[in-house]
Structure formats: structure tokens, C-alpha cells
Amino acid sequence: MSGSNGRMPRLGVLVSYLRTEEKLILADARRRGIPVTPLFDKELVLDFSAPTAAASGVDVDVVLDRCVAHARAGYAIRAFERWGIPTLNSAESVHLCDDKAENSLALEAAGIPTPRTVLAFTMESALKACELVGYPAVLKPVAGSWGRLLAKVNGPEQAKAVIAQKLELGSVGHGVIYVQEFVPKPDRDIRAYVVGERVLAASYRAADHWVTNAARGATSLPCPITPEIEELSLRACQAVGARLAGVDLMETADGLTVIEVNSGGEFRGLMATTDTDIAAEIVSEAMETARRGRPERRGAAKSMAVGPMAV
Amino acid sequence: MTGTCPECAAEFELSGVEQGEIVPCPECGVELEVLNANPVQLGLAPEEGEDWGE
Amino acid sequence: MATVGVLCGRMRVEEKLLVAALAEAGVVAEPVVPTGLPLPPSRHPLPPAPAFAGGPQTDLLIDRFPERAAGAALIAASRATGSATIDAGLAATGDRLTVATALAAAGVPRPNTHFAWSAEAALAAVASLGYPATLLPLAYRSAATPLLDIDAAEAVIEHRAVLGNGVETLALVQAGVAVGCSSCFVVVDGEPVASDGGPEPDAVAPNLAARAAHALGARLIGVVVAETTHGPVVWDVQPVPEFRHARPLSGRPVAEAVAAMAIRLLKARAPQQEPMDPHDPRPVLAPAGHLNGHGNGNLRAEAGEVRDGVALFA
Ligand SMILES: Nc1ncnc2c1ncn2[C@@H]1O[C@H](COP(=O)(O)OP(=O)(O)OP(=O)(O)O)[C@@H](O)[C@H]1O
Ligand SMILES: [Mg+2]
Ligand SMILES: [Zn+2]
Questions:
Q1: What's this model's pTM, rounded to 2 decimal places?
Q2: Which of B13, C14, C123, C249 is deepest in the core (most CB within 10 A)?
Q3: What is the pLDDT of residues A48-70, one digit of tens each?
């Protein structure tokens, strides 16, 4: 295996810290002789005026984003793209995945079944949004993960109480109130893991609580990859342009509905339920991405479209 | 048209205001939003958000 | 001529009413809006004089400041300069725990209350008190929030823990909610003067409000009294009560009662300028040792102490 210029592409794994997943990815790459290096977000000094990523201290051919700090990763990946380094996922896709409102909008726009979602910006309008989806309603922070700050509100008084905390204590982003219909589901949801054009594995995440994140202690159980899971997960990934993602699905009486697509995605829980070596598949996809080559440089792409050539 | 400040109850003249406009109360200085233009109804203007700007 | 200041963020309806009532009584009062003034250095006792630079120079300062952290510092500094103050006593300078503890210690009936240091403790408190319950954050700037069911409790408590700065997690958790069964009594100079909301009060609730004001050393305070199956309890207090819509209990409006108290306090001071108001039982400015000499001295209940069914675990 070698890069387009004959040498093995150098893989940078963007991390905040190393979880089980990242250790497995690094180990697999090393086993295959791939030059791999963790890129710690805390050490980055991204000099936008640098002509290359190497000049800004990052000398790799492809970047795999495994960062838990979404704001950091978002900017870092934009910068890497500007320097022509292919990333997994693309900056645009990471942007769509990291914001629940963007995520839902993209799914809805692509005609993918997803719970009814309404956005509002004040207490009064958010209460109207809750009425619209009906009670119980679910409130989520637009930027958030691991099931954090998910709220089920069973009536207007409860909605008011929770929204008041967001408005009193939250930073700007918490003034964007994301309201979703509550989907009565069995005591589990489905996490499907997509790499490239394939659903590698799926698991049920079962819990007593209505929030069934593995991060909140849900149990992962094997789940067969049905044609419906396969089709919906791939379409959902396409809708946000993700090639490496955990897709969250819920079972309803009318079939599956997609909650969201998580760029990168954790697969620790999933591993216990499948024989597929997910880490190895991710490393292969990273090598494939490196071979497919560089994204268009941001500046360059612009001048092609509206620069001298158009005159 | 006269409006009443909800904060200090001052009554003052307003002319040509439109719903959604922000006017200061001449007496207590608080920023007021015109909730309704005719008849004039005033409420406290929303607090400036950290991300507001041009 | 005595100088009377009305400490406020801006002159709202209540402050205008106070200035008008004082003028009616022959006293000129000036708004003291401290935004342009340098703040005093600390809440600790300051030397009685000279005054801190630029601070309000008054003989009497009426505390109508909406933000309590700054308000507490300002009235403390003002008292240190020798000014008398009309304020909510412990509720003006302290937090909801200080107040609840003082009320419990004075035997004022309160709802069953737990104090929570953390999100886990708050959830455990609601679980043991049952639903509905109410979360009352330590700082008066945060509104009391009803926790009607477990989903709301989990979400509200998590939001305060995650979005707050640590202090926001600290809260009292009280059994029940005070919706539709509470009145706020404005107590002035020991007398319940007006009530806001709730049913036509009987004699019991206003008396309870007066007892609470006394226990807190408050000269002007709003006391929220809720009816429960065990009778009325003091649910919460308002350090700077609104009273524009309050119904007078005996015909005398709140502003007039405050003006009368102001005259009384100014008269008491008139002969010799006392550096400290001797009738002021509030401990914030009192020198060490002064505390125990007073009825309100030892205000804090011991850890885990239960009085009148009020459990305060500290
Ligand atoms: N509308 C809903 N109705 C019922 N349950 C829901 C709904 N939305 C979310 N859930 C439950 O909550 C869990 C977490 O929701 P979601 O994936 O939207 O947020 P998150 O987990 O915090 O984000 P991330 O997956 O990025 O970590 C879901 O797995 C599901 O069990
Ligand atoms: Mg999720
Ligand atoms: Zn005004």
C-alpha cells in the first residue's frame, strides 16, 4: 500500500485525548506500517498565514478527526482543508453533524424520516414550538453530545422551567431552542456505524432511561443490519456528506426514524456486539481518502469560479 | 400618541413609531420596545445578546 | 438637613413612589444609582469613617438595588460610613440558605427543606421529598423553579449543574409548589403593610410574615407565605419586593409606611451622629462579639438540626 507519489500516506489522528477507539486505530495503523501520529488539539497553533500545514506544525497527508472537542475540531479541520489536506470527515460534514439543528435540517431536506423538529429563539416562541410538536416534547442543546442536557418536558410548566435555565445560565448557543417531538420507542435505540459506503455494524442501546446513550450507561446488544437500517443509515450519511459516522435510529410503529448522524462516532459499545474490526476499517478508509487526494484549496476554488477565468 | 413606560410608569409622546422599534424612556432611561403601534403599547426591550452585532 | 438615598438600578415605579412619599413627609430623597461609582472594596466591616471614595454619602440609605451581590456590598459599605439603612436584613446581605436557616432557628414554620450541594444531592432531595417540589437556588437573582415531575427535575438540575459556574448548583429543595396558594406580604418596620397575590389574607399569614421579617432583622422585605395542609409556611422572601400592585392591609400604602420609618430612623439619629446604627441587628457590619449579644445572634442551625419539621442538612 502506498500513496500516489509512491510512499505510504502519513496519517494524523486529531484527538483531545486517547479513548479506546483511538488506541485501537493507532495500533492498527502501526501494525500495518502506516506512519501515524496523534495530533492533540491542545497543542495546535494554527497559523492561517502559513502556506502549508507543515509550516504550521502539522506534517501529514490525511487527517482523521477523533476529537471530542467539537469547536476545536471544527476550526482545525477547516484549516487543514485550506492547506489541501484531506480530512475524515470533510469540514462541511463535521459542521452539519456537530450542530443538531443543522443535522435535522439536512435530514429533513433530504426527505429522510426524522422526528419533527422545530427551532425557536425566545421563551414565548419556544413554548409555541412545544405546543406544535405536542407534549411530551424533547429539548436538546444544538451543540451537545453524550446525552447531555437532553430534556423531556411533559407540559408547558415543565418546558418553561427548563427553558428558563437555558436562558438564565446558558451561553449564546443555548438561546437557540431546539424542540423535537418525543418518539415513544422501545427501551432502546439503534446505533449503526458507517464507514465509506458500508454499514459495518449495528447495535441496540438499551436502557431504563429514555435517553439511551452508551455514555449514560446503556447496554449495547447485537442488532442485525436489516435492509432498512442499511438504506436509511447510508442515506442519512449522504445527506450530511459523512463517510465516517455513527447513525442514531429509533424504532417506531411506522418504521425507523433517524435521530442524528454523529461525525466520527464512538464504537466502543458496538465492538462487543460485532466481529468486524471497525478500527481497521476506519484506517483503511483514511488511506483511501489520502489516495483520493487533496480537497480543492479553499482560496484556489474561489478564484476558479469568480476570478480571471470567468472574465 | 402617548405611551406608558412599564418600568417607571412615565407617560410620554411618541410619533411615527412602528411595531418592533426600540425607544428609550425619557424619564428612567430604560430601552423600550414598541409592542404595538396603535394604540401604543410598550414593553422592556430584549437584553443585548453576546453575539449581537452588525 | 439629612440626606436620604434610594439605592437602585434605575427609578422604577416603586422608587418613584418612595421618593414621592418621603417628599410628602418633608424629606428630600435622591436616587443613588451606583453604576458610575467605584464599588466599595469588600463586604467586611469597614472603618466607620471616612467614607469610601465616591460611595453614597447618606444619613439613610433605602436599599432598592435589584442585583444582590452588588447591593449587599453597597449597603454594607454605606452602613460602615455611619449611614442607617432600610433593607431586608439578612435577606439583603445573605442567600436563601442563610435566610432559611435563620427562619428555622427562630421557629418560623417553613416547608420541609433540604439543602443540596450537588446535582446528585438535589435529585436525592427531590426523590425523598416527592413531587411536586421546588428548587430555590441559593442566590436570590435566580427564580424559584417548580419541579413537577422527575423528567423536569432531572433536566432543570442538570442544566444548572452543567451551564452554571458551580455555585448555581447549590440550592434549597422544598416540598411542594407555591403556585396559586401563596401571597407576598410587604413588611415595613415590623408591620405587615400590604399583600400581593393570593386570597384575601386572614390574620395568621401576615403575622407569620412579620415574624419572619423580625427574625431576619428586615426593615423592608417581601415575605412569601404559602398555605399548606399543615397551615401557612414562609416559602421564600423577596429582598427588594415590588409593591406597585400590592393591596394595603390597613389603608396605609407601602411607600407611606417606609417614609414614616425613615422619619423615625432619622429622628433617632438626629442628636448625635452615631457611627453605627445601634438598633441594627444585622451581623454583616457588626464587629466580632457584637453578634452574640443580640437576639438574632446565633442564626445558623447546626448541621442536620431539625426544627419544626424543617430539616436543613448543611
Ligand atoms: N425525539 C426523541 N424521542 C425519544 N427519544 C429520543 C429523542 N431524541 C433522542 N432520544 C433518545 O436520546 C438519546 C440521545 O439523543 P441524541 O442522539 O439526539 O443526543 P446526543 O446523544 O446527546 O448526541 P450524540 O449522539 O452526538 O452523543 C437517543 O439515543 C435516544 O435514545
Ligand atoms: Mg446520539
Ligand atoms: Zn421609564
A1: 0.88
A2: C14
A3: 999 999 999 999 999 999 999 99
Judged by phi (left if over 0) then psi (alpha if -120 to 50, else beta), residue C138 lies in alpha
Which of B28, B30, B44, B50 would you mutate first to test chain C, the one with the most C CBs within 10 A?
B28
CA distance B34 to B3: 9
User: Which residues, in sequence order, are CB contacts of B36 under 8 Å at separation 6+?
Assistant: B19
- Fold designation for C112-175: Dna Ligase; domain 1 (3.30.1490)
CA proximity to A43, closest of A20, A19, A21, A12: A12
Contact at CB, A154 and C148, closer than 8 angstroms: yes
> What ipTM was estimated for this complex?
0.91
Cell of C133: 417540589
C-alpha cell of A159? Answer: 418546558
Instruction: Give every CB contact of residue B52 below 8 A, 6+ residues apart in sequence.
Output: none
Omega before C31 within 30 of 0, i.e. cis: no
A107, three cell numbers: 435530514
pLDDT digits (tens, 9 = 90+) for C40-66: 444 344 444 444 444 557 899 999 999
Q: How far apart are CA C163 and CA A168, in angstroms?
A: 9
Reported confidence tier of residue C198, pLDDT bands at 50, 70, 90: confident
Distance between CA atoms of A18 and C19, rounded to whole angstroms? Answer: 64
The answer to whether the Cα torsion of C286, C291, C296, C301 is positive or negative is positive
Query: For domain C3-93, which CATH number applies: 3.40.50.20, 3.10.129.10, 3.40.50.790, 3.30.360.10?
Result: 3.40.50.20
All partners of chain A with 3 or more CB pairs under 8 angstroms: B, C
CA distance C124 to A306: 62
C-alpha–C-alpha distance, residues B35 and B13, integer Å: 16
